[in-house]
Amino acid sequence: MKSQITNRMATVLISVCAGLMALIMIALVGYIFYQGLGHVTWHFLTTVASTFQVGGGIKDQLWNSFYLLIVTMIFTTPLGIAGGIYLSEYAKPNRVTGFIRSCVEVLASLPSIVVGLFGMLVFVNTFHWGYSILSGAVALTIFNLPVIVRVTEDALRSVPVALKEASFGLGVGQWYTIKNVLLPAAFPGILTGIILSAGRVFGESAALLFTAGLTSPDLDFKNWSPFAFDSPLNPLRSAETLSVHIYSVNTVAIVKDAPQVAAASAAVLALFVLIFNLSARGLGAWIQKRMSGKS
């Protein structure tokens, strides 16, 4: 009887904690939407931002956020998955492996402002990339790489050993087993790490202040050459993202509608993060079916 009471109390406590977390998230997102969605219009989404005139939009900042996300994930995803595969399947338990794990843990605990200062000193000044999308993407790669490495390693280790042994029993090699057996089984966990990293890219501002910059040229969406200064695809131009724009509007903007612009920008940012997460999970489910051979 005592064990049953304890079990019920633990179940109730865990359910209350889960409900509390969901309630906090719903309240936070609901408040952001309540404050900002009323100011979001098509004109706001397609107009160039302004720190001096009323009625500015977020067209360039919205594009910069997505473009920076794509460039960052191109760098982060293959490196992080490869690192997780190495630590899980190839690395031997020795001092070198322990040193690598310590480096990953230290990188994961670094504040974003420190990564931003490092990016400014190395990528902006030493490599002479300037305040650019490339500098910001590489800095965010350093910032997000430990997350995908650890998530990939844990996801691969959580795959039942019987699957690996069955594959080896058929006489196939280690890489074939990793590619066709372990990765499809561990894909949901790896996808969760990728989504978490992408969400951090969307919301990051401290590291981008020192690497991508606080300004953005008026983008010419008719010129998609990556070598033009005002081209949307130019990786060496400065790029104020949506999260940095929210900070800028709340600190240095002198327009009368700064609170409304900041609230609308925050609502758009939260909305696109939710849409991205749901879309990524749907795409991940489809990819997992393809990788596992299900129709």
Characterise this structure.
This protein is mainly α. It folds into 2 domains: 1-39; 42-292, MetI-like (MetI-like fold, Orthogonal Bundle), CATH 1.10.3720. The chain contains 11 helices and no strands. The protein has helices at 2-36, 42-45, 59-90, 95-109, 112-126, 133-157, 161-169, 174-203, 206-209, 242-251, 258-292. The radius of gyration is 22 Å and the shape is globular. The termini are far apart. The mean pLDDT is 87.
List the helices and strands and how they pair.
Blueprint: H1 2-36, H2 42-45, H3 59-90, H4 95-109, H5 112-126, H6 133-157, H7 161-169, H8 174-203, H9 206-209, H10 242-251, H11 258-292
Characteristic key phrases:
MetI-like fold, MetI-like, cell membrane, mainly alpha, 295 residues, 73% helix, single chain, transmembrane, membrane
Summarize model confidence as the mean pLDDT: 87
Order of helices and strands: HHHHHHHHHHH
Which CATH class of the largest domain is shown?
Answer: Mainly Alpha
Domain module count:
2
CATH architecture of the largest domain: Orthogonal Bundle
Protein name: Phosphate transport system permease protein PstA
Organism: Pullulanibacillus camelliae
Subcellular location: Cell membrane
Family: Belongs to the binding-protein-dependent transport system permease family. CysTW subfamily.
